[in-house]
Every structure is written in structure tokens, then in C-alpha cells.
Amino acid sequence: MADDSSTSHRRDPIKSSVGNVAAQRRREKAVTVGKERRESLVRAKRLCRVGATGDDNVPVEGNDMITDKTGFLLDAQTSTAVKELKSAAAYQGKGAMQKRVNSLRELRRLLSKSEFSPVEAALKAGAIPLLVQCLSFGSPDEQLLEAAWCLTNFATGKPEETKALMPALPFHIAHLGEKSYLPVAKQCAWALGNVAGEGEELRNVLLSQGALPPLASMMLPNKGSTVRTTAWALSNLIKGPDPKAATELIKVDGVLMQFFGTYEKQMRRWPLK
């Protein structure tokens, strides 16, 4: 009996050790999964600094290593910019359109400053309803472009920040039509690609709202960077285990060839070594 008791006491630490190792492995796996999730989202989303026009001269100021003081300043500037946009949206006098465009451009400039853009501050200040208003049909193309650009960068934020774009999604989809100004359509495709990159829930929302057919149609005229942006947005939209969206996309005449052509060009540009 003494021997059995001794054996029992000797085994307990071994069991405890195995349990600790297993727990440690679970923790490490959770950390790894979380890291992979963050890295996957970074790859799936793109901050729009240059915009749909391809103007490389658009200023992007600041340093990515933002200090707390700079962050507070940026948040304050963003809140002020949203207030200015609210004032401009309500203004009906002479030069109203240019006033709105200037306000949108300032907000866009702030949101494009870095990967740590002040999205949360803009949300708290009430930017989304104003930007949705600026996306309304009949608005000047320049205003539509700036509003879509701002919303594109909203969708690079945290999940809850991306979900805040829900009221704007039908407008983005509607502006994908062939009658839309091409830079506006491209910018809306970019925004939808960011939203789709957030995850399955928002992908399903976009699919239910009919985002796939107009995006697929944008692949057919070979418009260089527009096709690349659209192909990327579609690749985010059809992700996941459910093949329904991918099957629907394949049925669109000519889209598959454009997909292969687009990615072949990308591989030529960045060949494997």
C-alpha cells in the first residue's frame, strides 16, 4: 500500500506538468490565431492614400509612429473637420458645392494620414450620416469621389468601425453602375472591398444587397487599375467556405478570363524569386 501511495504521489506532478504544457500550448495557439487574424485583415484591407484618380501628388503628411500627443491633436482636428462638413452640408448659399468639397477633402486628408487614422474620432463626431448625405444621387462627381474616399478609409478600422458603414453600403453599390463617373465607381469598389475584407458577416450583407453583379460588370471593360481594384474587391467578396458567390461570379461571361489576366499581370510585375 505504501508503494502504491508513493507511486501515486510521484505521478501527480507529471500529470500537472502535462496539463500545464497543454494549457500553454492552447494559449500560444490563441495568440497565434489572433495574430494571423490581424495580419489577414491588414492584407484584406487597403488604406486609400492616393485615391481613385491615381494622383501621386496628393500630400500624405505625418509619421506612422504617431505619439500620443500627435494622436490627440489628430483627433481634435478630425472632430473640427466633421463640424466644418456639417456646416457645409447645411449651407445653401453661393459656392455651396465647393464649400462641401473642401470640407470633404480636409476630412479625407486627415483620414489618409497613416494606418492609425482617426476613424474613431470621426465616428464620434457624427461623420457617417454626413458622408452618406454627400453620396446621394445628383451630387457633383468631385463631391461623390471625396465622400467615397473618406468612407474607404473608415473601412480600414476596427470591426465595429467598419460595421458603422452599413447605412452607406447601398449608395456604394448603386454608384458602381456604368453611368457613374469611373473614378467614383472605382473608389466605391475599393470601399466595398475593405468592408468585405472584414469578415463573413459583412460579406453576406453585401451579397444580400446585390453587390456582386455590378462589381462583376466593372471587370469587363479593361480599364487597368479599375480592373485590379475590382478584382481585389471581388476576391474579398467571394472568400469563405460557401461556394455560392464564387459560382455566381464564374457564370458572368468574360469575368473569369479577366481575373486570370489581372493576376497574371500582377505576377509578372512581382515575380517569385
From TrEMBL:
- Protein transport: present as a keyword of the record? yes
Q: Which UniProt keywords apply?
A: Protein transport, Repeat, Transport
Q: Which residues cross the membrane?
A: none
Question: Could you tell me which InterPro entries the record lists for this protein?
Answer: ARM-like, ARM-type_fold, Armadillo
- Sorted alphabetically, which Gene3D superfamilies does this protein's record hold? Leucine-rich Repeat Variant (1.25.10.10)
Q: What is the lineage of its organism?
A: Eukaryota, Viridiplantae, Streptophyta, Embryophyta, Tracheophyta
Could you say which protein family the record assigns here? Belongs to the importin alpha family.
Q: Tell me the superkingdom of the source.
A: Eukaryota
| UniProt organism field | Hibiscus syriacus (Rose of Sharon)
- This protein is called what? Importin subunit alpha-2
- Region called Disordered, residue ranges: 1-32
Record SUPFAM superfamilies: ARM repeat
Q: Where is the composition biased (Basic and acidic residues)?
A: 1-14
The GO biological-process annotations, alphabetized, read as: protein transport
